[in-house]
Amino acid sequence: MPWTPSITVVLGLALVVATGCAPGGDQAAPSPGGESVERTPDEVAALACGDGVDVLPGRVDGLTLTGEFAARVDRGGDGAFAGTVKLTSTGAAVSGTTSPEADVYVASGGKVVATPPAKDSVGASIDLRPGTGREFSARGSVRGCAAAEPLDAGRYDVFAVVVVNRDDGPAVVVAGGPWPIEVV
User: Fold this and answer.
1) Which helix (H) or strand (E) segment is 34 a member of?
2) How far is CA 169 from the centre of its chain?
3) Span 91-120, mean pLDDT?
4) pTM score > 0.90 for this model?
5) What is the pLDDT of residues 142-157, one digit of tens each?
6) For residues 73 and 46, is the Cβ–Cβ distance under 8 A?
7) What is the CATH number of the domain that holds 125?
8) Are strands 63-69 and 80-89 parallel, antiparallel or unpaired?
9) Per-residue confidence at 59, pLDDT binned at 50, 70, 90?
10) Res. 120: pLDDT tops 50
11) Domain tally for the chain?
12) Which residues pair with 154 in a beta bridge?
């Protein structure tokens, strides 16, 4: 099957999310004042450790992202947790290509402290009509950014991101959260 631009874009975004690097290999970094660097809409889908979650879109006209996650996760073992998110069209139809899984970030004090686990997936078609939705698996980790050690016990916020590379326009980034999670 030949590569199409939409699949290439999804794979590129997955690489950005998995590596924490912006296109061209530049590491995303906070500014000297500790604030997040201003990003383009495509880069919003690639938050890095220490970035502020305030760069996530608060609302996207015609699309909502709701989710369910366990209230608690054990910091032992591999630190993995799972949930589901649902992308719903509340407005116009949306079709294109997306990742089969949402990206899940863990934050504390408004800053990313754990990024999504690496994924090995290809783009999947999505076709939402008004009033319809699609569920995505949403895996996260409580392995922190610093040396991949487990996060300290305590309360954190979970955010999920789904990127749709639309057939008829630019990519749209839809974020949901915060959902509370307690690390025990």
Assistant:
1) none
2) 20
3) 94
4) no
5) 999 877 789 999 999 9
6) no
7) 2.60.40.2360
8) antiparallel
9) confident
10) yes
11) 1
12) 183
Measure the CA–CA gap between 107 and 153, rounded to whole angstroms. Answer: 13
Any idea which of 60-64, 86-90, 135-139 has the lowest mean pLDDT?
60-64
What residue ranges in the chain does DSSP mark as E strands? 63-69, 72-73, 80-89, 94-98, 103-108, 111-114, 124-128, 133-141, 154-166, 172-183
The boundaries of the domain holding residue 22 are: 5-183
- When the pLDDT of each residue in the chain is averaged and rounded to a whole number, the result is 79
Please give the average per-residue pLDDT across 83-93, as a whole number: 94
Asked if residues 130 and 161 have their Cβ atoms less than 8 Å apart, the reply is no
**The pLDDT of residue 57:** 86
Tokens (6 digits) for 96: 């294109």
The rounded distance, in Å, linking the Cα atoms of 109 and 53 is: 9
Distance CA 34, CA 99 (A): 31
Q: What is the CA radius of gyration of the chain?
A: 16
Classify residue 26 by its DSSP letter: P
Tokens describing residue 159: 């955010």
CA distances 172 to 31, 56, 57, 64, Å, are: 25, 12, 10, 12
Q: Annotate 120-143 with b (16+ C-beta within 10 A) or e (fewer).
A: eeebeebebeeeebbebebebbbb
